[in-house]
Amino acid sequence: MDKSINKNETNCSHCNLVYPDEVMIHEGDLRFCCNGCKSVYHLIHDRELESYYSKVGERKLSPPVNINNFIDSSSFDTSSFYSQYVKKIDNYENTFEVSLHIEGIHCSACVWLNEQILYETAGIIDAKINFSTHRAYIKYNKNLIELSKIIDTIRAIGYDAKPFERTERGRELDRERRDYYIRLSVGIFGVMNIMWISIALYTGYFTGIDQNIKTILNIAEWILSTPVLFYSGWIFFKSAYFGLKNHHVNMDLLVATGSLLTYFYSIYITITEKGDAYFDSVAMIITFILIGKFLELLSKRNISQNLDLISKYQPTEIELVSGEKIEAINIKKGDVAIFKSGSRIGVDGEIIRGSGSIDESSLSGESLPILRDIGETVLSGTLLTDGYLEVRVTREFRDSHISRIVSMLEYAMNSKPNIENLANRISGIFSLTILFLAFSTFAVWLYLKGDFNIAFIYSVSVLIIACPCALALSTPIGVLIGLNRATREGILFKEGKNLETLAGISKIAFDKTGTLTVGKPKISNIKLFEEFNEINKKRLKALVHLSHHQIADSLYKYLEKIDSSNIHIVDFKSVPSKGISGKVDDIEIFAGNIRFFREKI
After folding, report:
1. Does the global pTM surpass 0.70?
2. Number of H helices and number of E strands within the chain?
3. Do 375 and 381 touch, CB atoms closer than 8 A?
């Protein structure tokens, strides 16, 4: 605790903020700015987590938020909250899982403290916090601890928690994208105009230019590069600052240091009118690396959208047997939903009326539709290719099959494979090495040439050129792209590290060959009878075009060159697992399997 700041001021023993000594809470040699800091300090020491202060060091923290401003934690124990945000873990008695957004996290020490406190709390089975999203996965035994007690524990150490919304990350990425748009616009505008000025300067370098004109052009570049550096480049300064706060040298520190040193060096050159300024380099470095970060952000956004299976396999609305339409998230156990031919099945349940062919390829890999009848179960995310079903819901939305798959994918996106952790460690060591090499380069060239300008430019070049952007960015993006590509191909991973494991696999065994097919039937051979003339081909094409069945689709594609625009089908009917029929000019036509033909003839 540093008491030498001012005779009448002292540091808070928890948050390190400075206040007049007379307003502090005195407790022996300890000083606290508020009861919140006092409570957190004693809680950390009671749990024997004093190493938290060694991680924080002398950095100043935000004091704990006033708990009186929070909503009543008992609201987290209500049945409505549980039904919407809490999931019961199957095969484990009284074990539940909840995803929370932790507010107030500023650094990795905050994550460490929250995880340690939660791990030490009786009844909590597992707790993981993602630093980038501030999302916490918490598993707990409800018999031993209530969710409200978990929230109170988080609040007791100066943080707050609220339910994590699936769409929150998407909204956050959208806000970040808009911010990048503005910063990039400023950067590109500055670079384009600076380049015109640089052309004049470089031309004057070879043909001769008056020093007064050169100074005026340097001042113009100075004015244009300033907003590029301090507004567009603020992202790098912010990241470098938080990295240093956590005793971590990241790549953004190299960018910030190199561009800032070049900027002030160029100001010195402009004022003294000795040498060449490099304002153009400052603007270009910031803008080009910012473009790289923006492309990374777009990749994350696209991947996040592609991995959102709910929008792809889950209907937003479900029609009940009563005719009422409700949102899928509001479906309750015991409700009876109806599904018609061609619609996505949005619930897990039991068929109580009707039958139909269901495409379950998205879940099982089975390429051909399967006939489901009364008494059989259906799963959310499957497709009713033909037929009519009335389904009694057996699982609510949050416990449905498709929701579990989405949760698994979200967990996979947040988990880090070993190679990513290794890349992060190497990046930190590499950045320190580059700083050392840059300083050594400056010292060596200054010793050899005795010219500060040459030594400075060479050392800054080492800082910027050797920045390990590719190493630090490519690994996490590579993992996300791998998960995204696998999902589009129908392959789901429970954890990101499984991608890494695949690299060492030499042989794969599949339980059935059907999973290796394209999954879409294609006509390879056809036999036509004499009476099946061109007009009948047109009628067949018009008929199968009205069906959603896979075989009907393959027939339609086979006949796609035939023009059937003048054929109009009426009284179309689809008979589940048999065929389809309709009328053209009062003539009944039908297509289907042999059993259907025998019934019709």
Report:
1. no
2. 20, 19
3. no
